[in-house]
Amino acid sequence: MSAPASGDACTRVTLTEPTRANSAVFARVTPTEPALRTARLQPLFLISETTDPFANIACEEALMDAVQPGEYLLFLWQNAHTIVIGRNQNAWKECRVAEFEEDGGTIARRLSGGGAVYHDTGNLNFTFIAADEDYDLAMNMQVICDAVRSFGLEAELSGRNDVTIDGAKFSGNAFYRSSGRRCHHGTLMIDVDTAKLARYLNPDPKKLASKGVDSLRSRVANLSDLCPRITVESLSLALIEALTTACGKPVPSEVSLPESAMLSAHVAASTDGQTARVASPAHIATPAPPFLPARFLSPAQPFPTKRLDEADVQARVARLSAWEWRFGRAIPFTHAFGERYAWGNLDVELVVNRGVIDTARISSDALDAELIAGLASALEGCRYDRASLENRLMGIETETPDQQMMRADCSELICGGFYS
């Protein structure tokens, strides 16, 4: 893809090479000459047609087992209205869990570390997968920078794992390794709803102490604001083309797209709150996405999706969508809050582990000591979500209108104080 002609409404900034001040992740990242990659690496690509986060993350995990030595895969995918937290993060600390889910959002946990991110269809996710001996982080970052550069923009590597333009972050990256293969994935903000991003990823300042990893808040930018020609479709094509060049494959002037180059991830998932189902690849229509031109300027090959086993992907979706994986991991934290009522003070401290309240410490100067004592026994062992808390608290027996008022106040505080 050529650079824009002079006069295009695209912001131009300077590319800065990584420095010693950058994270160790980028300490060795330097531009990679295509000639050094040799022609032995075969660039592959796959573009998902689903916006279900569990299906996409499951497909990504399955691809880690399917990519073979000598292949370099670029998987492109999108999630709709999703918050994805890092493997070792506390969901309640990173986002407004209850509010987001009540607004129809989905919270997913990925397999890599790093911070929480908000996904909508204005965001494009990328994944590079290669065998250990073929993996090249410098090349991956060069692919991203070259794709953005094709629109007349320049980028720099910044901090732990970010790519920025003029100091504003448009891409965050994370990494993991499994079974002799490496995964490098991240986000590309094209036209993300930044109001929702700020709303859901900035929880109220509660007294929550956690051993989970905090997300780093950064100034962000949408690429389409810097260059209106950048869309999900145009950037997808630029990334595939940049990967082809980086793998040492010359980009011909014109190459017809073979009829077999269908870009579906062959994964379609549906969830009913308890189960997840992956449709059989044989039953999914696989037309090429409308943005792919009939004559596509890249010798990169579509990933052979016949390597993905339906039952295997389905099992991964079920595991990744389960409450135990998303919220029940062993990341202990303490949530403390309190309030003053006409009947007295109420201070609550909840020690939560694996998404369940291990210990509830309740202190109060209320005269009804028995009801206050009953709060702790009702809360301990309860799953840390609003519906479970409400059920436990409203199950406390009351005998007088005053006790009913106290129970209602306690329920409102604890369920409202739930780290939503």
What report would you give on this structure?
This protein is an alpha+beta fold. The longest helix has 17 residues, at 401-417. An 8-stranded mixed sheet has the order 7-8-9-10-6-2-1-14, with helices on both faces. Strands 11-15-16-17 form a 4-stranded antiparallel sheet, with helices on one face. A 3-stranded mixed sheet has the order 4-3-5. The chain contains 13 helices and 17 strands. Helix 5 (137-149) packs across helix 8 and helix 12 runs antiparallel to helix 13 (401-417). Mean pLDDT is 78; it is low at 1-32, 204-208 and 253-288. It folds into 2 domains: 24-326, BirA Bifunctional Protein, domain 2, CATH 3.30.930.10; 333-417, Enolase-like, domain 1, CATH 3.30.390.
In short:
With 420 residues, the protein is α+β, with helices and mostly antiparallel strands. The protein has 2 domains: 24-326, Bira Bifunctional Protein, Domain 2 (BirA Bifunctional Protein, domain 2, 2-Layer Sandwich); 333-417, 2-Layer Sandwich (Enolase-like, domain 1). The protein has helices at 34-37, 53-66, 91-94, 97-102, 137-149, 194-200, 223-226, 232-246, 310-321, 323-326, 369-379, 386-394, 401-417; strands at residues 42-47, 71-77, 82-85, 106-109, 117-119, 123-131, 156-158, 162-165, 168-178, 181-189, 207-210, 269-271, 276-278, 301-302, 333-341, 344-353, 356-364.
